[in-house]
Design brief:
By secondary structure, this protein is α/β, with parallel strands linked by helices. The strands form 3 sheets. It has a 6-stranded mixed beta sheet. A two-stranded antiparallel sheet has the order 1-4. The longest helix has 18 residues, at 47-64. Helix 2 (47-64) packs across helix 3. It contains 7 helices and 10 strands. The protein has helices at residues 4-14, 47-64, 79-89, 130-141, 158-167, 177-186, 192-203; strands at 18-20, 26-27, 33-34, 36-38, 70-74, 93-96, 109-110, 118-126, 145-154, 171-176.
Amino acid sequence: MESLDLTLAKKLLKINAIMLQPDRPFLWGNGWNAPIYNDNKITLSYPDVRRFLKVELSRLILEHFPDAEVVASVAMGSIAMGALVADTLGLPFVYVRDVPKDHGLENLIEGNFKPGQRVVLIEDLVSTGHNAIKALHEMQLAGGDVMGMVAMFTYEFDEALEAFKNEELELITLTNYHAMIEAALATDYIKDQDVDALELWHENPENWTPVSPNVD
């Protein structure tokens, strides 16, 4: 039986929620060149994938954080999915802004949240972990008891793993970077020679540059 992480990675590749271009890298917002780009918001346009994610994220929460009282998304990419998961579980939903609203109440946490409530965070993807840790701190400052985080995808960067370890924040994900490579090979999305570029980038994403293809 195929593993969950491999199954989901294949689904995300099929709908271009994950795109791979080892020879023509994407430019990330942080300035990195990358052979991969994630746009998990596109999953909302595919009912079968959207339902799969909703069910599996809900299952992770029930299995790992059964005492959670509130579902909290990390803005902005996971807001819609977080609301779907909260609805499935019958729990209140809030989301954590990356910056305060510049008018009105200048909220960082949007929704009806009460200090002392047990919270599970939801993220669409985890790269460096900066946004997740920032959301964790905001929930803690507001009096939340953050039990852990569930996410669709993780790049498995050492930086993020160390940050989560230091914060004692448990992260549970549905799929990951190396399962994605396995899925891409299995579906002929990439060739064997592309794996080296993907692994080299993963080892040093900040300084990676693509190798120019040989031209006869």
